[in-house]
Amino acid sequence: MNYKYHMPTKVFSGKNCIVANSDVFKTFGSKAMLVTGRSSAKKNGSQHDVITALEQQGIDYVVFDKVMANPTIECAYEGAEFAKANQVYFIVAIGGGSPMDAAKAMALLAKQDIQPEDLFNGQYAEDVLPIIAVPTTAGTGSEVTQYSILTNNLLETKTSIAADILFPKVAFVDAKYMSGLPVTTTINTAVDALSHSVEGMLSIRSSLVSDALAKESIRYFVKAAPAMCDAVGSGDVSLLDETVRQDLMQCAMLAGMVIAQTGTTAVHAMGYSLTYFKDIDHGRANGLLLAEYMAVVQESEPQLVAEILAALGMSELSEFKALLSKLLGEVEVLTKDDVVKFSAKAVAAPAIKGNCKVKPTEDEVNAMFMQAFNLAF
Amino acid sequence: MNYKYHMPTKVFSGKNCIVANSDVFKTFGSKAMLVTGRSSAKKNGSQHDVITALEQQGIDYVVFDKVMANPTIECAYEGAEFAKANQVYFIVAIGGGSPMDAAKAMALLAKQDIQPEDLFNGQYAEDVLPIIAVPTTAGTGSEVTQYSILTNNLLETKTSIAADILFPKVAFVDAKYMSGLPVTTTINTAVDALSHSVEGMLSIRSSLVSDALAKESIRYFVKAAPAMCDAVGSGDVSLLDETVRQDLMQCAMLAGMVIAQTGTTAVHAMGYSLTYFKDIDHGRANGLLLAEYMAVVQESEPQLVAEILAALGMSELSEFKALLSKLLGEVEVLTKDDVVKFSAKAVAAPAIKGNCKVKPTEDEVNAMFMQAFNLAF
């Protein structure tokens, strides 16, 4: 019963919740900066809804739409300068994990002078621009976390800024912005969310609160799984209908609430190399490794895996492996040299060193990569 | 999927969590006011632990230990004056619902000039003394809610101040302070917590998040139920051991997180009269009415009740009724005049008017009271 729980973000969920609650924006000041990627927020209607809400409330705004996938530290500094130059009072982050995570770093850097080499040291003052988050994918859960994950070219991996001041003040969770999201992106992000919930249950920081949220999150993934399997088979995005989108959005938000408490574990630590060096999508990278790590956990803590399988409505890990395989398809080509390099990086990562109930050895990490990518031992 | 979720309190749970996290107090200033009842916080060790933590951090403090059960508006004003006179920076509320709820009103009134007639109008500025909550009973969940419930002699009932600024900044949840709590108090408060979770699921403001927390809370009640039944039969408080206390503390905190989202429903609306006019303990009052209200709900929304029964691990409402009856024993004597008066008050209460998925009519409220108190129709 030893745990800490904290998730201060105010969540508004539901169709058209942004415009219906436009008065919320008013409490943060008279000028906003929208932070988003190049185009998707314009296409999916989210940017339009935010602007409608801001205009309804007579709030001025500027747009920073230069966030790339897997945003860099440089991007965060550039956005922070833009925020300062435009004297904005708050940030509205619109998009998937990349714009939300970049926006959090911008919110911090706009108010505090922090050198790049100190950015991940965990020592920050209280000052930050308030953040309002509008997720348009169902994966990261960044709308309800204190994490900003940036690509760190110095360390050749992704690195997290984790600070309570980075929790968005408000999250608007509306699945309608996902309606045009391609099948592959939908699946990759959904698998990321699933990985958050499963890893949350495998974290030493898990608690009865995070576990309750994780199991609920997993149940929403399971509810959406048949439609995702059909869609990946046929390539027909229309199979991912409004109900599926809503289920996935809730799955991802609940999973975000989980990792806000627990952090991630071996799966994310290993997955980051796949993304950094092999350009494998983040959620997909986790999905390729998730069942492998569960198999390692099962050896010493079978009841933990049984609890996760129960939430999945499954009795065998092989069923789960089959589901992930169906969703993710053919795996990428990895060399043994890749594996050795990635394993060494992973075992040094805090998510393995400090956060796993079952801490894999370097040999086990090696074996998980080999297994996941069908390499001979 | 239309809902709002917000629970910003930072929760520390676990044995000795106050002293282990004494640095948390430091962030709120150099002088505190402890708000508590006459004696229990001194006996159960909670006041001692808070003082130890404050002294470790060099924080000065004053003690206001005059909060009575079912605290009055006058008590809240008196404590606020005491806080102002002593120029404290924050409040540490220690005890059951009464000290915590009174402390919240004091925190508000110490910073804002509000006349008694405006105290419940919902219009407050942002200023409030920060509140740290230390529950010593497992019932109210006030440590994680935005409610301050005071006895309102003008309206002859209990009335809530509900404001986001009243969420405690921090809650320290340590079941060890409950170790000496008498069997009857333990059961009454536990039944209050159960009522919060069940009513949360019956509220129009329920959501997937609050339902997940409610079901988990109910499961903890069920886990503790056999020991409570044994203790009530034998009167042996030692049957309520550390594990039972922990389970009940978690049950109550989760249930608090639920009503922070959902509010309460017909059960609380009806129960307040039993407490105000008949001096029946608050939790007991809810427990006497809970199964009756579930029976009313079952008529039009059987699946809702089935979901609650599933969380209880039961298949029939009669099983639940039998459990409550075993825990609560012989009922008090009520007259038909009482029933008529209480029913009229209940149907006018916001918890019935605005918050029930199944809104009972005055006749149904009448019938529930009659049934609960074995009165002939």
UniProtKB/TrEMBL annotation, chains A, B:
<dbReference type="Pfam" id="PF00465">
    <property type="entry name" value="Fe-ADH"/>
</dbReference>
<dbReference type="InterPro" id="IPR039697">
    <property type="entry name" value="Alcohol_dehydrogenase_Fe"/>
</dbReference>
<dbReference type="GO" id="GO:0004022">
    <property type="term" value="F:alcohol dehydrogenase (NAD+) activity"/>
</dbReference>
<dbReference type="InterPro" id="IPR001670">
    <property type="entry name" value="ADH_Fe/GldA"/>
</dbReference>
<protein>
    <submittedName>
        <fullName>Iron-containing alcohol dehydrogenase</fullName>
        <ecNumber>1.1.1.1</ecNumber>
    </submittedName>
</protein>
<dbReference type="Pfam" id="PF25137">
    <property type="entry name" value="ADH_Fe_C"/>
</dbReference>
<feature type="domain" description="Fe-containing alcohol dehydrogenase-like C-terminal">
    <location>
        <begin position="186"/>
        <end position="366"/>
    </location>
</feature>
<feature type="domain" description="Alcohol dehydrogenase iron-type/glycerol dehydrogenase GldA">
    <location>
        <begin position="8"/>
        <end position="174"/>
    </location>
</feature>
<keyword id="KW-0560">Oxidoreductase</keyword>
<dbReference type="InterPro" id="IPR018211">
    <property type="entry name" value="ADH_Fe_CS"/>
</dbReference>
<dbReference type="InterPro" id="IPR056798">
    <property type="entry name" value="ADH_Fe_C"/>
</dbReference>
